UniProtKB/TrEMBL annotation:
HAMAP family: Shikimate_DH_AroE. It comes from Oceaniradius stylonematis. CDD domains: NAD_bind_Shikimate_DH (cd01065). Residues 241-263 form the SDH C-terminal domain. The lineage of its organism: Bacteria, Pseudomonadati, Pseudomonadota, Alphaproteobacteria, Hyphomicrobiales. This is Shikimate dehydrogenase (NADP(+)). NADP(+) binds at G129, A130, G131, G132, A133, N153, R154, T155, R156, D157, R158, I218, G241. Homodimer.
């Protein structure tokens, strides 16, 4: 009889990761004997960890900041999403060799499918921020058929680099232009840390946005960012970022443990309770 599968999430630091809460919830609810463990691995040590992974008893795992690009460079067998995004967040074994993928674009799209499936009918989007997260969003939007995507960033040159990488549908813009670009957008996406707990809010004039526009944020702490609150007050359809985190975990769990889990209200409530507990702890005197 085979030993129970073991999976991990590797990062540095790793204490902030909620992946163990998600995967352990599924293991418990599905009655599986596997395990999912957080591993704090310093950048200098991560290549050695990867080198020994194929011969280890790990079924695979997730990688998070700062290891996503290192894993991409080290693992030759990568899925199409990882190739397009240029980063890896999920590792598994195929015939004894390491394979890698990126599930962030899948998680983003699946979250919107849950909240507001009409997003797939859109043609124009405004994506705010040109960091690592925006690559997954751009890939998801292009896969969904968006034809015109304005990519606004504090430094326009960074947005222009991604526009060159992802093709002619991407149009670089300075952050100061977001009010103007939002006016024609069917979908507005914040991929920056603006609006996150402890960060200043994203300043966006939602009065210029069309009545049918959808507004979403990949930030999930707080669940309702100032941008989402303002969009809701304006009567717009909104989607918070927590579902992206939950859905991106599904493909990896299925690869390691052999069962495809569901993102349910119970799972969401489980993670929301943890978010609220940490928020209360941070605010305690």
């Amino acid at each position: 009889m085979a030993d129970p599968a073991r999976a991990f999430v590797a990062g540095h630091p790793i204490g902030h990761s909620r992946s163990p809460l998600i995967h352990r919830f599924w293991l418990d609810r599905l009655g599986l004997a596997g395990s999912y463990e957080p591993l704090d691995i310093a950048p200098d040590d991560f290549p050695f960890f990867l080198a020994g992974l194929s011969a280890s008893n790990w079924a695979g795992g997730n990688v998070t900041i700062p290891h996503k690009q290192t894993a991409f460079a080290a693992i030759d067998k990568r899925d199409a999403a990882a190739e397009a995004i240029g980063a890896v967040n999920t590792i598994w074994k195929e015939r004894g060799e390491l394979a890698a993928g990126n599930t962030d674009a899948y998680g983003f799209a699946a979250n919107l499918d849950d909240w507001t499936p009409q997003w797939r009918a859109g043609q124009r989007a405004l994506v705010i921020g040109a960091g690592g997260a925006s690559r997954a969003i751009l890939h998801a939007l292009l896969q969904a058929g968006y034809r015109h995507i304005d990519l606004a960033n504090r430094t326009r040159d960074r947005a222009a680099e991604l526009a060159d990488l992802f093709g002619e549908s991407i149009h670089a813009a300075p952050l100061a232009a977001i009010d103007e670009r939002a006016a024609d957008a069917d979908l507005v996406v914040n991929t920056t840390s603006l609006g996150m707990s402890g960060e200043p809010p994203l300043m966006l004039d939602l009065d210029k946005v069309g009545d049918q526009a959808i507004v979403t944020d990949i930030v999930y702490a707080p669940l309702v960012t100032p941008m989402l609150a303002a969009a809701r007050d304006r009567g717009l359809t909104v989607a918070d970022g927590l579902g992206m985190l939950l859905h991106q975990a599904v493909p990896g769990f299925e690869r390691w443990f052999g069962v495809r889990p569901l993102v349910t209200p119970d799972l969401r409530a489980h993670i929301v309770a943890d978010l609220e507990a940490h928020c209360a702890g941070d605010n305690a005197s």
